[in-house]
Amino acid sequence: MTVGSGQVYVVTGGCGFLGSHLVRMLLEHEKNISEIRVFDLHLDESLRTLSNDRVKVRLISGDISRLEDVREALRGSHLVIHTASLVDVWGRVPASKITEVNVTGTMNVLQACKEEEVQYLVYTSSMEVVGPNIHGDHFYRGNEDTEYRIYHKEPYPLSKAKAEKLVLEANGAKIKGGKLLYTCSLRPTGIYGEGHELMKQFHRQGLRTGRCVFRAIPPAIEHGRVYVGNVAWMHLLAARQLQIHPSTLGGQVYFCYDSSPYKSYEDFNMEFLSACGFKIIGSRPLVPYFLLYLLALLNALMQWLLHGFFTYAPILNPYTLAVASTTFTVQTDKAEKHFGYQPLYAWEEAKKRTITWVKSLEVSRKDLKDVGEKGNYCCN
Ligand SMILES: NC(=O)C1=CN([C@@H]2O[C@H](COP(=O)(O)OP(=O)(O)OC[C@H]3O[C@@H](n4cnc5c(N)ncnc54)[C@H](O)[C@@H]3O)[C@@H](O)[C@H]2O)C=CC1
Ligand SMILES: CC(C)CCC[C@@H](C)[C@H]1CC[C@H]2[C@@H]3[C@H](O)CC4=CC(=O)CC[C@]4(C)[C@H]3CC[C@]12C
């Protein structure tokens, strides 16, 4: 295989949900690269087959919390897109582990950039570095400059906020050889699309309840969502333009947005699930908020009591309930102004692709015959 003399990009967490979309996006749309190093703790061997005459996809097994692993992966590369992270708001992973991967891991990426002379770093942050906060303050179609009472207590948002701060502070730092490091941070809202693990869980749950989804959150609560393909596209553009206009993008944060509609978390999921015959029951929440909150507290108590025996980590807990019950949506054109970002996929296309994928879950379930359903698998 002949591989050209283009740039070498490293994608940490490249085998994850966003990471694997990003690798495919780079292969298809970034003409200036000859190698993509996919660095991950758990490798997805299928990505290796994506190598072509122009670009080699190299899978590197490593742990972001080990500096040596990161240094080795970055050696001789031009740019890093750092998406590796432990995404956990359910208490499945101890807080210390989340900090080790998300904060120490990011420190390692920064240190490795400095030691291995890598000048450019794009960091995948999250809307969670801003909110929602535990006071339930709504963030209604805000932008990067909107004032908000930021308050972090939970390990995941806390770790993302700390990591983002480190990344932004490192912008302009001297690296080995005397050049400067340029960094920027992208903050997706809730990502959806092909491969979204949480959507699989909601789909599975809906099958158990006869394709009925019982409304829990008032429909007026808006939750920001963005299509994974557009998040990947935005990373590609940021990486490209950070090198061309480092003084514009360096040290900046950008919310990731697209034309996905503003809806409640449940109504948004229904955009896809309804194509598989799912129905949402109730135009208002069926259970009063205080009961849902009690249930969430009960789940937290059970988690605490069972801790040491096994990990009890249901989707509903006081934190996820607070996030789902607080409006958090963005409306901004900062990324468009700074680096010409416009969504690559219109809402109709993002929806179509996601529905096709959700329907494919039904086919594979049917093949496996592992659901105790009465054969009602038909999709519209
Ligand atoms: N899923 C979402 O809705 C949102 C995600 N994000 C951010 O986007 C990024 C990607 O998230 P997803 O793709 O959803 O998560 P994911 O869990 O699918 O991907 C994360 C990847 O990081 C890898 N990883 C974890 N620990 C590692 C370690 N010690 N060393 C090396 N690799 C390790 C995992 O194996 C995985 O492949 C994360 O930084 C996350 O914080 C931001 C906003 C929303
Ligand atoms: C009926 C229940 C009350 C519904 C619970 C839904 C929740 C599990 C999800 C609602 C909002 C989600 C979070 C949000 O999209 C922001 C996120 C950003 C990230 O960086 C990681 C994921 C997440 C925290 C996401 C997690 C699931 C929700 C809390």
From TrEMBL:
GO terms for cellular component: endoplasmic reticulum membrane. InterPro entries: 3Beta_OHSteriod_DH/Estase, NAD(P)-bd_dom_sf, NAD(P)_dehydrat-like. It is an enzyme of class 1 (oxidoreductase). The keyword Transmembrane helix applies. The chain crosses the membrane at residues 286-306. It catalyses: (25R)-cholest-5-en-3beta,7alpha,26-triol + NAD(+) = (25R)-7alpha,26-dihydroxycholest-4-en-3-one + NADH + H(+); (24S)-7alpha-dihydroxycholesterol + NAD(+) = (24S)-7alpha,24-dihydroxycholest-4-en-3-one + NADH + H(+); 7alpha,25-dihydroxycholesterol + NAD(+) = 7alpha,25-dihydroxy-4-cholesten-3-one + NADH + H(+); 7alpha-hydroxycholesterol + NAD(+) = 7alpha-hydroxycholest-4-en-3-one + NADH + H(+). The lineage of its organism: Eukaryota, Metazoa, Chordata, Craniata, Vertebrata. It is a multi-pass membrane protein. Keywords: Endoplasmic reticulum, Lipid metabolism, Membrane, NAD, Oxidoreductase, Steroidogenesis, Transmembrane, Transmembrane helix. PANTHER family: 3 BETA-HYDROXYSTEROID DEHYDROGENASE TYPE 7, NAD DEPENDENT EPIMERASE/DEHYDRATASE. Residues 10-279 form the 3-beta hydroxysteroid dehydrogenase/isomerase domain. One of its GO terms (biological process) is steroid biosynthetic process. Pfam families: 3Beta_HSD. Gene3D superfamilies: NAD(P)-binding Rossmann-like Domain. The 3-beta-HSD enzymatic system plays a crucial role in the biosynthesis of all classes of hormonal steroids. HSD VII is active against four 7-alpha-hydroxylated sterols. Does not metabolize several different C(19/21) steroids as substrates. Involved in bile acid synthesis. Plays a key role in cell positioning and movement in lymphoid tissues by mediating degradation of 7-alpha,25-dihydroxycholesterol (7-alpha,25-OHC): 7-alpha,25-OHC acts as a ligand for the G protein-coupled receptor GPR183/EBI2, a chemotactic receptor for a number of lymphoid cells. It comes from Xenopus laevis (African clawed frog). Belongs to the 3-beta-HSD family. This is 3 beta-hydroxysteroid dehydrogenase type 7. It is found in: Endoplasmic reticulum membrane. Its EC number is 1.1.1.181. One of its GO terms (molecular function) is cholest-5-ene-3-beta,7-alpha-diol 3-beta-dehydrogenase activity.
